[in-house]
Amino acid sequence: MQAERLVERLTATIVDTIRSEGLGPGEALPAARGFAEQLGVTVPTLREALRRLEAVGVVELRHGSGTYVGPSFQRRILDNPYYSPIGMTDAVELLDARIAIEPGIASLAAVNCDELSLRDLSDAANAALSITPAARPGLFHSALAASTGNRALREALDSLLIINARAQQTARVTYDRVLDHKEHLSIVDAIERGDSVEAAHRTESHLRNIKRTVVAAGDGA
Length: 221
Fold this sequence. Notes:
By secondary structure, this protein is mainly α.
């Protein structure tokens, strides 16, 4: 129990150190031995704390290179990396949550989206036809949330998208990339015209199509 509390305190200390040093995502932390001495702990204890922070994306451990500030360091909303395997019921519930949330996000994007965000959104929509790593699942929807300018909405949706991708992978869901691309461009069109009502409507329709695909995959399993 004492060792557990030490690791918990150490994780908080590491985060405070990253913040006080003004380090951002991708920047390196000190080498393990020197960092452990600086914090007054053993190297194994430091590594255990770093592994916990890596699990939530606060740091990134690169084999043979060192430890770096992770992409989620500044996030306030995170998914649970220890959650048990996700089934079809979870996949449908997650989509229902997205159907409740994302039309409102699209509506807000139509009001707040600036030129740069619109370009990012268009690029993400066109990535649906790509098979490169850049075309990660949920890329368009993440860009949609980012285009609202609301960080909390973006983080909340990103967490949903991460879990959603796991659920759909488990269900072995495959999508029609061409249809996805067409529907994404339709949403971008409404946002570009500043039509918040139509942006919300098209986003809901798109998500309901995804839900039908997921449910059909479950029925055929």
